[in-house]
Amino acid sequence: MKKKWGEPRSRQDVEVQIPESYLAKDYETQERRKLSFLLQESAFSEHIPIFCIIDIDLLPAEEKALFDGYGITPHAAILLGQTIAEPFLFAEQAAPGNRGDRISSCAELITLGYLMGFREKIEFQGYQTALIPPSPLPDTKLSRMLAASRKGVVGRSQRFLAGEYGAWHTIGLLLTDAPLMGGDYRYPDITVDLCDGCRACLDACPCGAITDDGYDEKRCHEYRNNPDNQEQASTHTVMKCMRCMTACDKKRIKELLK
């Protein structure tokens, strides 16, 4: 299957992705397929770069437990995200008149828009949802949840490495009690170590928050929120440290995935 958005997909292209476990003819399974394809086609038509469904019911107990505690009993999780070509999309912006309070970065707002749109689609069908917003910083739990898609791995920085995009993305999750098929046929499951001995993010971290022993969230936040370590890009826009993302070498990862 080719990954380009504009190329037509035949019925065979669509059906070939369906695992045998989802091929039963009973009403419930047919409705699962129907809703999954509706969401998938919506993601394609909206040109959302990163889309994948996790069938939580099929996960091992340890991974399944990651999705507990969000107010619903989820059967599926939908990854929705934006690829990042320019770090400026992570600039934190405050609108005039809001007393300088941080609103968000452009990258986060784009992904939140995807998540809110899909929340409406699913709740319109009568199902419940819970939204987990993207994090511009390493978030070990969120990264492990995203890695349950098998479309990426948790990197040494504790960021989720989304296949060929590496750390250059912003991704959130939409949990739902809707029964959905897992997967995304555009991309194969990741079966290799995408870091593969690379130390770029460790060497790039200016405050030692990322080490061989793990990620020190407190140290990272203190460094980023220190005005001496920030760049005032404009009156209402501040650039904070994103070196562990920008150090991630997408070209090297693409070579590994060939």
What helical percentage do the residues reach? 25-40%
Q: How much β-strand is present in the residues?
A: 15-25%
Widest β-sheet, arrangement of strands: 1-2-8-5
Overall mean pLDDT stands at 88
Write the H/E string, N to C. HHEHEEEHEHEEEHEEHEEHH
Instruction: Tell me about the largest β-sheet.
Output: 4 strands, antiparallel
End-to-end separation: 15 Å
Q: What is the domain tally?
A: 1
Radius of gyration: 19 Å
Going by helix content, strand content and strand pairing, the class is alpha+beta
Total of DSSP H or I helical runs spanning 4+ residues = 9
Characterize the overall form: globular
Based on DSSP secondary structure assignment, what is the total number of beta strands? Answer: 12
Segments where pLDDT lies below 50 for 5+ residues? none
Structure in words:
The chain has a four-stranded antiparallel beta sheet. It is of the alpha+beta class and 258 residues long. A hairpin with a 2-residue loop joins β11 and β12. The protein has nine helices and twelve strands. The longest helix is centred in the N-terminal third of the chain and has 19 residues.
Question: In short, what is this structure?
Answer:
Helices cover 31% and strands 17% of the residues. The chain is α+β, with helices and mostly antiparallel strands and 258 residues long.
Per-chain topology:
Elements: H1 11-15, H2 27-45, E1 50-55, H3 61-64, E2 76-83, E3 92-93, E4 104-105, H4 106-124, E5 129-132, H5 140-147, E6 153-154, E7 160-161, E8 169-176, H6 200-204, E9 210-211, E10 214-215, H7 217-224, E11 231-234, E12 237-239, H8 243-246, H9 250-257
Antiparallel strand pairs: 1-2, 2-8, 3-4, 3-12, 5-8, 6-7, 9-10, 11-12
